Structure formats: C-alpha cells, structure tokens
C-alpha cells in the first residue's frame, strides 16, 4: 500500500489541527519544518508545548489520535505523509479534551456524538462554531479533516469515526 498525503490549510492565528494520517516520521520538528517560517507554537490537551522561538519543546512527537492547538503568524499549507489511521476509536476522560478528526471525510457532528452518554458539547478551537445538543444548537455541522475541536463530557467517553 503506497503512502498517502493529507494537505492541511492552516490559517493565521490560533486554530485546531489533526490528521487522519500516521506520519512516516512523527518528530514535530521535521513535520513542521516546511511551515517553520509561519509557525509560532503548538500544544496538546495535556499542556505539552512546542514553541521553538522560546526553546520550549515538551511536545516532541505527533500522535494522530490527538488533536492540537496551533498558532501561526501567517497562513500556510502543511502536508503530512504516511498511512491512514487504522484504529478509528478515541477514548477521552471526563472534562475538556481535544478531538482529532481521524477520518479522511467530513463527518456530521450529530452522528459522531449520537448516543454517547456523558457527552455535553463541542466547540471550534478559535472559532464560534458550537455543538450543544442539550439546547439543540449546532453551528459546526460537520467535523473537518485537518481540524481539531474541543469537547466536553461529564464522564469518560469513547468516540468512533
């Protein structure tokens, strides 16, 4: 099976990033090198940070089951090369988490979280989109490959793409 590529458009400012590809090389320095002039920092849901200008690199590897928060000083296009994620199941602890989109296709957010006890809401990272089924609010529509979203649950949950 030949490797595949996932091209991700990164806007200027803050945003969410993830990929449905397990990269050949998961070292963040190498993955982000093509956009290093536009890149400022990236962090995961555990608080690990890669911020080269400040010599902070507690976040060193890309994990496809994780979503990240990224900050760019200019828009850029990042291409990740490797193989599609095989395990389409993500486990989250209660509280706030970052959802990676591990599907090559957009997925309706209502279907993704349908019948998951304890799930409360999802929101765009640095956007205004929100999915809050308790109040019949859905301004996200579909989760988009390449992006990541913040999700909140009141118990441990499992999400399957």
What tags apply to this protein structure?
161 residues, mainly beta, Jelly Rolls, 2 domains, 5-stranded antiparallel sheet, 2 helices, 17 strands, 6% helix, globular
How would you explain this protein's 3D organization?
This protein has 161 residues and is mainly β. The chain has two domains: 4-84, Jelly Rolls (Sandwich); 89-160, no CATH class. 6% of the residues lie in helices and 46% in strands. The chain is built from two helices and 17 strands. The strands form five sheets. The chain has a five-stranded antiparallel beta sheet with strand order 2-7-4-5-6, with no helix packed on it. The protein has a five-stranded antiparallel beta sheet with strand order 10-16-12-13-14, with no helix packed on it. A hairpin with a 4-residue loop joins strand 13 (130-132) and strand 14. The longest helix has 5 residues, at 28-32. The protein starts with a strand and ends with a strand. The model has no long low-confidence stretch (mean pLDDT 97).
Strand content: over 45%
Look up the CATH topology of the largest domain: Jelly Rolls
Rg calc: 15 Å
Main sheet: which strands, in order across? 2-7-4-5-6
Low-confidence parts? none
> So what's the overall shape?
globular
What is the helix content? under 10%
CATH architecture of the largest domain: Sandwich
Largest sheet: 5 strands, antiparallel
- Amino-to-carboxy terminus distance: 22 Å
Structural class of the helix and strand makeup? mainly beta
Number of helices: 2
Mean pLDDT: 97
- Count of structural domains: 2
SSE topology string? EEEHEEEEEEEEHEEEEEE
- Total count of strands: 17
What CATH first level of the largest domain would be assigned? Answer: Mainly Beta
């Amino acid at each position: 099976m030949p490797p595949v590529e996932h091209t991700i458009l990164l806007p200027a400012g803050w945003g969410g990033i993830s990929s449905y590809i397990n990269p050949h090389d998961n070292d963040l320095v190498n993955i982000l090198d093509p956009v290093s002039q536009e890149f400022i920092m990236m962090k995961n849901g555990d608080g690990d940070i890669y911020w080269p200008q400040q010599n902070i690199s507690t976040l060193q590897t890309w994990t496809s089951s994780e979503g990240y928060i990224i900050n760019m000083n200019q828009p850029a296009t990042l291409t990740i090369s490797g193989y599609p994620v095989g395990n389409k199941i993500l486990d989250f602890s209660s509280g706030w988490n970052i959802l990676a989109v591990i599907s090559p296709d957009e997925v309706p957010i209502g279907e993704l979280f349908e019948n998951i006890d304890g799930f409360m809401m999802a929101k765009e990272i640095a956007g205004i989109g929100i999915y809050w089924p308790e109040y019949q609010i859905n301004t996200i529509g579909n989760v988009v490959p390449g992006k990541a979203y913040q999700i909140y649950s009141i118990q441990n949950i499992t999400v399957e793409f």
